[in-house]
């Protein structure tokens, strides 16, 4: 393992006087019956008990196990009246114990540390909110109420903010990891738009276009001095003066108008609601994001729409908020850290370092890559007798592909189909011109590409998206196409037409078990060409030709990728020679099998049953994982990796017990059947978080000027109480990115044998360098996870809608107005491959 080091600065500030504190707590016994085979139910009920207790004490509560019994720890100065928890399989009574226990930071085990960190985190958040002028959202981020409106967008407020987490480094240090953030909020309240349009029209636009019916439209609710995000699901027929709610202060026997209730509960606030709302205000129904709860009521004069960075209302405002590394750290230290001054815990000052942590972090070198024809792209180059990073690494990847084509050129399925919209929207001459150019480009990259065996046309003038896809299914069947691969030219609808997203996703979803589709934009293709006479199509002008070439290259690369013709691989074998990426979107579970240097990569998927309504959709059982990976490994290990030295599962998101037990069960079965020799084959499960709760950033420190720039690509930081957490920066120098580098958060969940976490991190970085979709750019994900994302995204997107559409249960009256049974907003709720829409 070869690494270099660099002087770095982290956005981490050490808590200095934790050894001065004693943390007192007491226990609440939780005697929930644990039934064999129903572990998921048991853990859900425990978490419910923890939430109920936390709500009763209005403070932190933490699960705690001792002597084979389960408890909930609460602060020693907290109390609540005994109550009956409606748990399963039977109700249990919860009551606080009387014994007070004490623990210190430097002398605690893992459970006790969880208590300490929860107590500290809760205390810090409570004190921050009491300072006023800031509010906390549902994900624990804080935002300033006064917007920064000097960036030129007149319709949207930019609310600057910050986020933090407490992160241990070993058993003796705890850091406040602090980062800046921001939020986009409509400058006007929803009532402003209701004056211009009727509420029913607004309800249809805002709520009828939701990509997933399980989620509402995000708004910011300003209830006096208390601000918080909500999800709106519907509108009431009543007003704030006539909408009656149960008054929590008096119980279900007493009803009060929403208007009177809000004036009462905000009576002591600095913000006077009487100036903001009236009894005639329309009312919306909402939930808190991610919460299982009954709908509640809110006057629309108190809510403002929240936007994501890709929404058209934000425009160029998002681009203006991207901060380079040095500027980001200046904001963190000069503005955000100031919010944490003069904090205390248990009556004593909480001392936080005023300087970020300086360190020397290691970085893996860029890996050498193997291309067709023996071409090698080196990660390091020799200059003046010294090894330096290849500053042209990403450009060399693309140049090599243009020169020698893809690495894997054999075993291409003969059934290749071109799906084309019929009629004037995509004329025959345009189809012939595009087809010839695409086949020539694809053959240049992969000489064994067999050209399109079938060209199948489809009608786009049907009533709805599903009618069009039903017609495609009939036409494919009539043409004898029941399996294989297809390039689908999407209808010539404008890029902001909501039908485009629906068509793309439903097409891939409908044929996921038989035909693998890649999509191309019919609208873009029409823009590149024009009829030069007699049905002959050519480029509009030289500028169109120049823009078409990279589009065609990316489209050909994506099409070869779905054919499992991957463009290049690692030159040298990784530390561990078998990785399995696992992800689940809604009811589709998929695994990506990465063998050796990446010359063989296979994706397989299966359909799983819908989970119980209150369980996490991404929590997988041992059987679900075993039934997917075991038969694949049984077939593929003898062919692609006959003598494996290890197997590593990389779970996209948070794993549970199912991944580890399924892996051990798989190895045991494969050994019994003689597929692998080692019954104790080294194994590991690693969680990969694309968006970490710990917002770690790293800057490369210029020792002469103290300026901070991008860290080296491959920089990593291992931390955690047991060094089980790692932050890997796959982007950075020499890649060119805007802003500052974001890390992948990796957690070593479990392992056996002589497995090194550091070597796993190195292998994952190597996979990040396999940027198949855009070889001239950096890639923030390992290819085993990136391929899964591309594959599963259409299956998971808008699953609630898809179920209804495929069973044809949508309202046809709505379809007649919109010309499609479901309309999707044009926003970055998901992103397409570069060569697609």
UniProtKB/TrEMBL annotation:
User: Which InterPro entries does the protein's record reference?
Assistant: RNaseH-like_sf (IPR012337), RNaseH_sf (IPR036397)
Q: Name one GO molecular function term.
A: nucleic acid binding
Superkingdom of the source?
A: Bacteria
Q: What is this protein called?
A: Piwi domain-containing protein
